[in-house]
Each structure stands twice: as structure tokens, then as C-alpha cells.
Amino acid sequence: MFNGYMTLEDVDVTAKRVFVRTDYNVPLDEHGNIVDDTRIRETIPTINYLLDRNAKIILASHLGRPKGKRDPKYSLFPVAKRLERLLGREVKFLPDCIGPAVEEAVFSMKEGDIILLENLRFHPGEEKNDPEFAKALAKLAEIYVIDAFGTCHRKHASVYGIKDFIQPVVMGFLLERELKYFEKALVNPQRPVVAFIGGAKVSSKLGVIKHLLDKVDKIFIGGAMAFTFIKAQGYDVGSSLVEEDMFDEALSIIDKAKKKGVKFYLPVDFICGQAISEQTPVIEVAWQEIPKGWMGLDIGHASVILIREILKDAQTIVWNGPMGVFEIDKFKMGTFELAHAIAESPALSIAGGGDTDYAIHKAGVVDKISYISTGGGAFLELLEGKQLPCLEAITKVK
Q1: CA-CA distance, 213 to 219, in Å (whole number)?
Q2: Does residue 78 sit in helix, strand or coil?
Q3: Is the pTM of this model over 0.85?
Q4: How many whole angstroms separate alpha carbon 20 and alpha carbon 59?
Q5: Residues of the domain holding 109
Q6: Per-residue DSSP letters for 33-73?
Q7: Of 83, 220, 268, 379, which one has the fewest beta carbons inside 10 Å?
Q8: Going by DSSP bridges, is the β-strand pair 295-299/269-273 parallel, antiparallel, or unpaired?
Q9: CATH number at residue 206
Q10: Could you give the angle at the alpha carbon of 230 between the alpha carbons of 224 and 232, nearest 5°?
């Protein structure tokens, strides 16, 4: 599926100016400190490979949503400092990403130098896929590397428009690894394949669920979207979140699963509250017994036992989306228990999406999941069976 695209190892980078599009869109606290540097660490293998070959390394990324304007709170300066710590060497930070001053700094680089450019999204041309902006970026490089999986679903100048102005465009090691794991999980998987899909709304995961029904042997739907499936079948769910306009879709998914022989599971009990708050009283009830005025905010203990049963023979596990409002302590049990159950399974496990990634970190099982994707939207688009725009930019092997 992803063979035939050029990777970093297909080109000679020795002493060349190599532009690496990374995804350093990391969470910052109110003081501008990096809260989680996973995305930075994930690019270190690519950077080290280039350093070993005396390349001149130009790193570029976006951060946040500055909407095409310069905004100090979205500066990549803290990322440059963190990179210096991780690499143990100087990373020169430039206050812009295009223009004469940037060109002068880049064209005077020595072998082994590293430059980090300022936020690409400070220029409106990045998100508008403006050819002039793409051309200005391409001017800096002799080889262009896309290693920003988290942005691969966007048709932005630095991951899509760039192809018209520079060749070769190759995959970095992070992007290559993401695609290889995805292929292992859903293109040529070891079976049975089990998927856990959570989150609030069926509408946002509809394409994912439909596509997965062609790929998996079992699927478990958790999170608030379970209530749309339950209510669509005529059962009461108290005041739990429901999308009534999705009832027909929900019923057709259950029907499709049956026809395809895919085992389709919903939670069998819920932990309920009267409001989404730490103060709300809590009850745990079977799925048919949610009282009026109460809402399901997490899956219950019987559902966790069911999950462990489902996982017993799993060879491949795919997980996207939490099982409840895990940010609140009273409703984190289901998501954390799912994380632990997947971690304890010997199966190949791949998880992705911002909330899922955060939950795995909070549950303390990062090292026990085979692969945690660095991309939210890009991961979902792959789960939906869509082609990532960035692959159109990458040079094919002759």
C-alpha cells in the first residue's frame, strides 16, 4: 500500500541542505513551557541520521492556530531549546521561515548545522497552499523530507504544494514508521483484528466505523456515541448524549456488521452522573437501567470484563477514542482499564488520536502499546480508508 515511495535512505544527503517538515505542534502551558515533548523526540532518529551524514539540517513546523499572523505565544523558540537539550548540540532559531534573512542564514550553513525556522503558520500562505509560499520554502533546500504525520491529511504548502518546486520529496523515518504500523494493523493484519472506537459523536467517526467493518473481526463502540446505537434500537438512555439524526446510520452499521460476520459490541453497563463535573453524585447501572435525569459518562466494570473477554484471542488491536469523560477522575476508569487491557495483550496494538494518546500516557502504559500514532486527524483519515495528501507530494521510486 505504501511501497514505492522514496524514503530518506533512497537519497544521498551527504553535505546537502535538507529541509525536514516536522510536526512540533506540542502542548504548551500558560508560561510557554512544553508539557509533552513526544512529537519532538519522535523526530530524533531522522535528525541523527542526517547528522551522521554531515547534512545541513533545516527544520520547519507549525504550532497552534495563529491564523496567518505572527503571535509570540505560538513561537517555536521553546522547541529549539528542547531540541538542543535532546540532541546535545546547538540548534539555531530563526525568527521567520522565508525571506532574504532566512536565505542568508541557510546558504551560509556548515555541514552538521541545525536551524529551526519560526512557525510556518505565521504566514497565511501555509494553510492556503499558496504556491509562492511553497516556492520560497523550496528555495532553501536541495532535498525535502516530510516527517510530519500529524499534518499529512492537510493540503498545506509545506506538505502538499511543495512538490511542484522541489524534487526529490522523501519520507522521514517517523512518517515511514507510522505507515508501516498502519499497514501491519489494517492492510495485512494478523487475525483476529479487534477495534475499539470511542468518543462523543457517531457523526465524527461514521466513516471510520464503516471502513473498519471491512477490515476487522470484532468492534467495540464505547464513549458517548454508544448511546446513539442503544437509543436507535428503541431503549431509553436517560439524558445521555444522543444524536437522533444518526439513528438510521447506527442501525445500518449494526446490520452491516451482522451481514459481514463482524462481532459488534456495545457496553453492558455505565457509570452515570447528573452532570459532567467532579461534584456530581455517581451510580453504576446496567445499560437498560439509566434513570431519567442521569447520563452515562463512562463504561462500567462489567463492560471492562467484556473487553477482556473480547481481547482474549486478539492478534491485532486498533484503538481510537476514550470510553468516557476520562479527564474527570470519577469517569476515567473505563478508558484506563481499556488501556491496561490492551497493554497486557500480546497482540500488536496501534492507538491514535489526541485523547487516546493522552489517556495512554495518563494510564502509564506508553511502553506497552506497540505503536502510538503521533497524528489525530491523519490517523482517522487512514482509518477511514482515505489517501493522505502528503503521499501525493512524495517522489515515487523509479
Answers
A1: 8
A2: helix
A3: yes
A4: 5
A5: 8-175
A6: -BS--HHHHTTHHHHHHHHHTT-EEEEE---S--TTS--GG
A7: 268
A8: antiparallel
A9: 3.40.50.1260
A10: 110
On whether residue 391 sits in a domain, the answer given is: no
User: Which residues neighbour 354 within 8 Å (Cβ) at sequence distance 6 or greater?
Assistant: 376
Distance, in Å, from the CA atom of 245 to the CA atom of 277, rounded to the nearest integer, reads 27
Q: Is residue 31 part of a domain?
A: yes
Domain count, the chain: 2
Number of Cβ atoms within 10 Å of the Cβ of 333: 20
What amino acid positions are annotated as catalytic residues? 39, 201, 354, 377
Q: Is the peptide bond between 168 and the residue preceding it cis, with omega within 30 degrees of 0?
A: yes
pLDDT at position 181: 87
- Which residue among 133, 153, 175 closes a domain? 175
pLDDT tens for 310-329 read 999 999 999 999 999 999 99
| Same structural domain, 212 and 296 | yes
- 368 and 249 together in one domain: yes
Residue with the three cell numbers 497482540: 347
Q: Is residue 96 part of a domain?
A: yes
As a whole number, mean pLDDT of residues 277-289 equals: 95
